[in-house]
Amino acid sequence: MKNIILVIDQPPDGKTAEKLRMGVGLILDDGNKVSALLIDEGVFTASGLAKDNAPAWYEIDKHLETFEALEMDLVAHEPSARDRNLTLDRFGIRMAGDEEVSLLLDNADIVIT
């Protein structure tokens, strides 16, 4: 079993949806501990500011709901959310400061960016 961190640092799009889908597969197929870190522009991924004309949003929410159902760790960088005036209260997201984010990354066996 590996400790894997998915770093979501770009605005939500099809690539973000693919990364989240891969995370679900990693835990289901291999029994790994998979966490998602939303940082920088990636905090918009769980913002709920969906765009009706962007199908990737539906896929992203579906994967985040699966993360929550599987009790996977969803972590948002608190300074990134604060700087963008976002409140992230969906999907069981846990807020983390700089030190905790650094520890998460340091303790990961694999970091997927």
From TrEMBL:
InterPro entries given in the database record: DsrEFH-like
SUPFAM superfamilies given in the database record: DsrEFH-like
Name assigned to this protein: Uncharacterized protein
